[in-house]
Design brief:
The complex is a heterodimer of chains A (about 220) and B (about 220). By secondary structure, chain A is mainly alpha-helical. Chain A has one domain: MetI-like fold. Chain A has helices spanning about 10, 15-45, 50-65, 70-80, 90-115, 120-125, 130-160, 175-185, 185-215. Chain A is elongated and about 75 Å long. The N and C termini of chain A lie far apart (about 50 Å). Chain B has a single domain (about 10-215), classed as MetI-like fold (Orthogonal Bundle). Chain B is built from eight helices and no strands. The chains are: A mainly alpha (about 220), B mainly alpha (about 220). At the A-B interface, helix 3, helix 4, helix 7 and helix 9 of A face helix 3, helix 6, helix 7 and helix 8 of B.
Chain lengths: ~220, ~220
């Protein structure tokens, strides 16, 4: 192998890498919050007393969980544009991530709600609370606590999956890598560094989630 | 100008879907073989292999599949090999699958209660015998449902091979889209074809899981 590695050529574009890194963090953080909200709404939908709502939520979950993220992204970005709904690459990327995470979060949150014993519901209802009040004040927090580990690993999977949105030229970390690589032709070095950054991100996110979990649920 | 009818589009997508299936099979079988080694190393009593397997899993689960594909694709050509996209994709997906299957199977082996180990040890079975006759037959039963479930992730993962230029379902969709500009139809069909591949696997996995739970409860 007659090849000398030139990692310095990658770090010459440090500011680009940082900007990409920042956008990846931003996209992941925003889609985490929005995805969780969609997930809670979806879980309520799947447990709804109205049958069509239940079917709709079920169809949403199955469709998203059984198709690749990149196809969802292309469908939202190119497909909807053809139908007249034009989005910027950043908007489409965020939307795709929220839609994707929302479907997985729906199933996870639903499992959490089902894990809460019926007695909790009955006790709440017997105190003359409405179903919504019982859900909001009695069931939701313990349910989230139960599924917190599953939820955080799904968030990290979505963060890693966000590398795919570079394909519609959303300018996150992988896009920065593609750009640098097209300038200096050091593809291996570039992607090696980017991979390392993603690894740091997933380790870092896990720590952040652990701290948040400690704050919210009082233990880690 | 050539006009593409609906059937032209569908026929070409179906042709390309065969490559998605092939790549999925290669990745799944390869991943299962390597994953078995990872699993054995992960539960080994020797700390060396145990740590090596841990780092292996940590790195592969903590980095995007797309980056793994890029590193295989560009890295192998660096050492002078001219790798076709199919080979690069097959290698990357095999490694990716092995890390996940290794970890899933470790969980299954560790789910077998300690009493089983102790009982078999008290019958003077050696470690390989314990594995072969007591632990693995039980662990295998638990492992079937999550393994089938992970096959769905493998099929979906093959979509990323389109980015390094391997013409499977997603890449074919992009190419047809570039020729017809019917993005809504083309990507809708691509999504439905993936759904047709993945949904039966999801259902099967769920059915197996339910059957196992019934068997255990009774």
């Amino acid at each position: 192998m007659n090849y000398t590695f030139h990692f310095a050529d990658v770090f010459a574009y440090g500011d680009l890498l940082l900007r990409g890194l920042w956008l990846t963090i931003l996209l992941s953080a925003v889609s985490t919050v929005l995805g969780l909200i969609v997930g809670i709404a979806g879980a309520l939908g799947r447990n709804s007393e109205i049958a069509p709502v239940r079917w709709l939520a079920g169809a949403y979950v199955e469709l998203i969980r059984n198709t690749p993220f990149i196809v969802q992204l292309f469908f939202l970005y190119f497909g909807l544009a053809q139908m007249g709904l034009k989005m910027t690459a950043g908007q489409a990327a965020l939307l795709a991530m929220v839609v994707n995470l929302g479907a997985y979060a729906t199933e996870i949150v639903r499992a959490g709600i089902e894990a809460i014993s019926k007695g909790q519901w009955e006790a709440g209802l017997s105190l003359a609370m409405t179903r919504w009040q019982v859900f909001r004040h009695v069931v939701l927090l313990p349910a989230l606590e139960k599924i917190y580990p599953a939820l955080t690993s799904q968030f990290i999977i979505v963060m890693l999956g966000s590398s795919v949105v570079s394909q519609i030229s959303a300018e996150e970390l992988t896009f920065a890598g593609n750009f640098i690589q097209s300038r200096n032709f050091r593809s291996f070095e570039v992607y090696f560094v980017i991979t390392g950054l993603y690894l740091l991100l997933s380790l870092g996110f896990r720590q952040v989630f652990r701290l948040i979990g400690k704050r919210v649920f009082g233990k880690g | 100008m050539v006009q593409f009818t609906f059937w032209d589009i569908l026929r070409n997508l179906l042709l390309a879907a065969q490559w998605t299936v092939l790549l999925s099979l290669i990745a799944f079988v390869g991943g299962a073989v390597v994953g078995l080694i990872v699993c054995v190393a992960r539960i080994s009593k020797n700390p060396g292999p145990r740590w090596a397997a841990r780092i292996y899993i940590e790195v592969l689960q903590g980095t995007p599949l797309l980056m793994q594909l890029f590193l295989c694709f560009f890295g192998l050509s660096l050492i002078g090999l001219n790798v076709p996209p199919l080979a690069a994709a097959a290698i990357a997906l095999t490694l990716y699958t092995s890390a996940f299957l290794g970890e899933i199977w470790r969980g299954c082996v560790e789910a077998i209660s300690k009493g089983q180990w102790e009982a078999s040890a008290s019958l003077a079975l050696t470690y390989p015998e314990q594995m072969r006759y007591v632990i693995l037959p039980q662990a295998l039963r638990i492992a079937v449902a999550p393994t089938v479930g992970f096959a769905v992730q493998v099929v979906k993962g093959t979509a990323l091979a389109s980015i390094i230029g391997f013409v499977e379902l997603t890449k074919a969709g992009t190419m047809i889209n570039n020729a017809t500009f019917q993005s809504f139809l083309v990507y809708g069909l691509v999504a439905l074809l993936y759904f047709a591949l993945c949904f039966p696997l999801s259902l099967l996995s769920r059915r197996l899981e339910r059957r196992l739970n019934v068997a255990r409860a009774s």
